[in-house]
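Dissemination and training. As part of the outreach component of the grant, students in the summer workshop were shown how a complex can be specified as a set of sequence lines and then modelled as a single object. The example used during the hands-on session is reproduced here so that future cohorts can follow it. Participants entered these lines:
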Amino acid sequence: GAVVSQHPSRVICKSGTSVKIECRSLDFQATTMFWYRQFPKQSLMLMATSNEGSKATYEQGVEKDKFLINHASLTLSTLTVTSAHPEDSSFYICSARDLIGGPTTYEQYFGPGTRLTVT
Amino acid sequence: AQKVTQAQTEISVVEKEDVTLDCVYETRDTTYYLFWYKQPPSGELVFLIRRNSFDEQNEISGRYSWNFQKSTSSFNFTITASQVVDSAVYFCALRPYNNNDMRFGAGTRLTVKP
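and obtained this result:
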């Protein structure tokens, strides 16, 4: 199956700093990538959907100025948590969609996640 | 609106027992996909199965089996002869046929004791 990577896998940063998380589709082109957040012992919540070359669509309650998403190429999307605070500490998971076969048959692949700790 | 309910927050069984994880969903869409994922302590989501709404055949894969009942909007997952390595959080998810909106249930934490 297709592989999605994330970097870094873990990051610790100080409150007030910004952190960038990369998501890459390694062996397929992903016109659409998704960013999820998972708090401890909770489910995955979709934060935003990004389409290559256009602005991301954010879910209700997610601050677009705080969580900057850039999907500049068909294989890379980045999530930047700006001015991070301890409450932003979470597990961030990206997902990429492979459009081969048409929009009703696409598969969605998940990255291994990035654990962010803000101190 | 879409919703996925996994009523069992935590389940604990002893190795070799069979265990069923429940999933009930709500959707207004007539066509959709249902999924099960496993999330071990490492955090990475492991894809287990995808089922589309017009295929109600049950599926068996080794010790895993899935029972899709459209009449009751349920997509239950059974592990037969559980093993310690099955310990993980299991998520059920729903996605409409032609858009991106994948909704996850709250997850069920399965602990298999030796």
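The longest strand of chain A covers residues 30-38. Students were then asked to discuss how this feature might be tested experimentally.
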